[in-house]
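Friendly challenge for the regulars: who can give me the structure tokens for this chain first? No prize, just bragging rights.
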Amino acid sequence: MYMKQRARRPKTEGLRSSPGHTLVDVMLAMAVLVFSATALIGIHLSSALAVRRSRNQELATTAARQQLDAWREIGFDGLPSNDVGKASAVRTFAPPAELPSATGTVTFEYLDKAMTVSAVDTGRRRLVARVAWQGRRQDAGAVILTTLIIR
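First reply, four minutes later:
Bragging rights claimed.
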């Protein structure tokens, strides 16, 4: 007996039912990846700015504190006197070089019994140390510290 053999056709049913990724799936995955990467970059830049601002603030606070400590160590009689009729005198100092375009000042003020500024030497001096710096965008800032020295 002779039987006719049918030509074998390749199985295509298995290919159709196998899990695969269409172009739409790939494009959607790429969009999610790009969105996530963009969000992470934004978070990284924001945290880098916060770290830089914190570092600058710490440098400025340390510089202002050192100035006030130095004047406290000198004592009341060593403080610069105000010009006649003036309620305050200002001295500048060099803040740390790491602070961008920074300025430093110490203001010496006479205070009366009510702790308000006076043009007369009352035996009370308020010292105000201020360190300000410039920066790019939101990176500028200032630190102001105050102390009281009594005769």
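The chain has one domain: 21-150. The CA atoms of residues 22 and 142 lie 56 Å apart. Your move, everyone else.
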